[in-house]
Amino acid sequence: MMALLELFKPRIALLAALTAAVGAVLTPPGPAASILPPAAAVFALAAGACALNQYQERRADAAMPRTARRPIPSGRLRPAVALGAAGVAIAAGTGALAVFGGMPSAALGLLAVLWYNGLYTPLKGHSAWAAIPGALVGAVPPLIGGWAAAGGPPPPAVWALAGFMVLWQVPHFWLLLLAHADEYRRAGFPVLTERFQPGRLVRVTAAWTLAAAVSSLVLPLYLDPGRSWIACLILLPAAGLSLAAVRLLPSSLDRPDGLYRRVFGTINGFAVMTLALLLLDRALVLR
Description:
Blueprint: H1 2-7, H2 10-25, H3 36-56, H4 58-62, H5 79-100, H6 103-124, H7 131-134, H8 140-150, H9 156-179, H10 181-186, H11 200-215, H12 228-247, H13 257-286
Helix pairs in contact: 2-3, 2-8, 2-9, 2-13, 3-5, 3-6, 5-6, 6-8, 8-9, 9-11, 9-13, 11-12, 12-13
């Protein structure tokens, strides 16, 4: 059972569900009861996509110490079982989206799976730039939530959230790459550390990290103006992430891996805090 839970990467699936929920509540009238079924469906769909990704990358995972203990390469779960579990979760998530969010939401969900597992995952083995198109997957969960709540195209606030998630995804992956570049290289993945001159990737990652922080400052424009204190609170994680990005400079590929891991943790915490504050604002509106 624990192996199946690990296969589904529940933390990543929960983040996708959270962004779908925020997309729903940013869509007027956004009743609280209407966000739960689409968010749960997105959780199932994301969990299935993560499981399918582990099935696809099981040989590469076995070659990297960071991932060798995952359920499939460690032998705790047979590949066929993992593939079946992924298929069940994807089918359940898609079906639930069709029922509770409508066919456009279900189509968006399937598009995300096709993009992530059909394009991004294979592209990682051929291009060091795979993170750029792969980041577009991050835009889909809030659009699903917004579409399900609106019964049609979501409002500008949801599109702003989708853009924020895209900008967050790229440095999220590149920080992980900087911390584990040798492992990715030994596993056969093309890596940007071989394409850039020493230090340039760190500077580029710092710039993307700062862009993610700045993009979050657009989101308070869509909040209730009567609760400016929440908008002010959103400044705090943005400021923290900006300081973390500055710590990457002056850039050097010889910087300790621990620094990259700390900034990686910071950028993840930044996203969760920003989404939680957006959800809090809408919860206060709807109470």
